[in-house]
């Protein structure tokens, strides 16, 4: 079975489409991914999982998606402020978590990808990440008996091509819904879960001071904002500006979801803060006027920031920790083995 073109003669694999249901939590905003265009099935989901953990998607066959997206850390790159990929090349951004992708319309810190099915082309072909071409990836998969089998099972036309590969990766990511944190169970009134006084106080402060941007139960309004971070002169990452080259977008980044934020450190697009304490100290007293800071962050005294007492910081952190979803971080459906 070394040559792909003979594969169909070598064995017959029945196409099969066992439907899988995407969890749509009652406390979440509407799903954005068009499921009608890519019906989720057990077979394609499993293929997507194989691909997510597959080094062959990279030039040196050693950097799978999961290299930078580790489950225990809500699929972020643990211990790296900037992710590195093939040949040790250092990227210029902190890896984002992969969770609740079906509820998002744009992807990456600057929204450079506008469809989940197209997003993986960026890391696969980026010289600093996986450094491969789509056609080389497809050739490698065609020469691999386990993929000949898995594609034939997952897709009616059975073809090993980019479209099917990207659809399968999306199916895996669409299924990755994180919605069973302590907070979720509390708001949905499940299992008699209560929040402590400190956590409840944190929730109140968060709603007053943070939810203007980190809104809804996804904890993001999906907008691009400039939250007053000092510009890193080494990287000079202009954020959303890079996509549309609109001067109004300078240094704006997508408001990140704060789900599982306890384990997704380091924080911000360049991973500059390693703790939540450091993030809150920044909001309270580290913001600078970099020329385009969000109006809502202007204080009465003319400085930028969100004033927080020590007690408020402690409460917010306790609240943010209620967003950790241990079931998701250990869910075997998404694990390599
Ligand atoms: C070398 C590290 C690396 C590898 C390998 C990698 N990623 Fe990423 N991923 C990142 C970084 C860094 C970002 C943020 C990039 C940006 O904003 O420019 C990201 C962002 C994403 C996002 C956007 C999440 C969001 O909230 O918008 C998705 C989806 C994603 N990656 C999926 C994948 C898939 C699928 C693969 C494999 C085909 C992959 N990644 C391989 C580092 C990596
Ligand atoms: C004006 C909108 C806005 C407000 C208000 C705001 N944030 Fe943010 N927040 C952002 C943006 C934008 C980013 C990403 C910035 C970047 O990386 O360049 C961010 C990043 C973060 C991160 C890092 C998350 C990660 O995955 O790296 C945390 C944690 C955070 N905010 C918590 C808070 C808390 C707590 C408050 C209230 C005290 C708050 N934010 C108020 C817009 C806002």
Describe it for me?
The chain is globular and about 75 Å long. It is built from 13 helices and two strands; from the N terminus they run αααααααααβαβααα. Helix 2 (42-52) packs antiparallel against helix 6 and helix 2 (42-52) crosses helix 7. It has a two-stranded antiparallel sheet. It has helices at residues 7-10, 42-52, 65-68, 121-125, 134-142, 145-154, 162-174, 182-187, 197-209, 241-244, 276-285, 310-321, 326-329, and strands at 224-225, 253-254. The protein folds into two domains: 19-177, Cytochrome c-like domain (Cytochrome Bc1 Complex, Chain D, domain 2, Orthogonal Bundle); 182-326, Cytochrome Bc1 Complex, Chain D, domain 2 (Orthogonal Bundle), CATH 1.10.760.10. The two termini are 25 Å apart. The protein is mainly α and 337 residues long. Helix content is 31%, strand content 1%. The longest helix has 13 residues, at 162-174. The protein binds heme C (2 copies). One heme C (HEC) binds at residues 209-210, 212-214, 225, 227, 229, 253, 255-256, 258, 261, 264, 267-269, 279, 283, 294, 296-297, 306, 316.
Give the SSE map:
Blueprint (H helix, E strand, L loop, with lengths): L6 H4 L31 H11 L12 H4 L52 H5 L8 H9 L2 H10 L7 H13 L7 H6 L9 H13 L14 E2 L15 H4 L8 E2 L21 H10 L24 H12 L4 H4 L8
Antiparallel strand pairs: 1-2
Helix pairs in contact: 2-6, 2-7, 9-12
The structure holds heme C (2 copies).
């Amino acid at each position: 079975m070394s040559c792909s073109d003979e594969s169909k003669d070598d064995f017959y694999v029945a196409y099969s489409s066992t439907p899988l249901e995407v969890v749509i939590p009652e406390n979440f905003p509407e799903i954005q991914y068009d499921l009608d265009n890519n019906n989720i099935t057990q077979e394609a989901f499993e293929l997507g999982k194989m691909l997510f953990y597959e080094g062959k998607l990279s030039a040196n066959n050693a950097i799978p998606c999961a290299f930078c997206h580790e489950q225990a850390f809500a699929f972020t790159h643990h211990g790296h402020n900037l992710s590195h990929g093939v040949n040790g090349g250092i990227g210029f951004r902190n890896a984002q978590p992969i969770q609740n992708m079906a509820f998002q319309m744009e992807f990456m810190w600057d929204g450079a990808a506008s469809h989940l099915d197209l997003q993986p082309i960026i890391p696969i072909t980026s010289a600093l990440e996986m450094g491969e071409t789509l056609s080389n990836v497809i050739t490698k998969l065609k020469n691999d008996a386990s993929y000949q089998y898995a594609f034939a099972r997952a897709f009616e036309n059975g073809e090993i091509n980019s479209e099917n590969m990207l659809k399968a990766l999306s199916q895996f990511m669409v299924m990755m819904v994180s919605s069973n944190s302590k907070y979720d169970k509390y708001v949905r009134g499940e299992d008699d879960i209560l929040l402590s006084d400190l956590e409840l106080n944190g929730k109140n402060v968060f709603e007053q001071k943070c939810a203007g941007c980190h809104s809804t139960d996804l904890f993001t309004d999906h907008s691009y904002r400039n939250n007053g971070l000092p510009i890193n002169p080494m990287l000079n990452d202009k954020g959303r500006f890079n996509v549309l080259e609109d001067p109004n977008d300078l240094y704006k980044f997508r408001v990140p979801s704060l789900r599982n934020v306890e384990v997704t450190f380091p924080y911000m697009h360049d991973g500059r803060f390693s703790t939540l304490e450091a993030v809150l100290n920044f909001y309270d007293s580290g913001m600078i006027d970099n020329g385009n800071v969000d109006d809502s962050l202007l204080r009465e005294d003319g400085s930028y920031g969100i004033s927080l007492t020590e007690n408020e910081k402690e409460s917010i952190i306790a609240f943010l920790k209620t967003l950790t979803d241990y079931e998701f971080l250990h869910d075997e459906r998404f694990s390599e083995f």
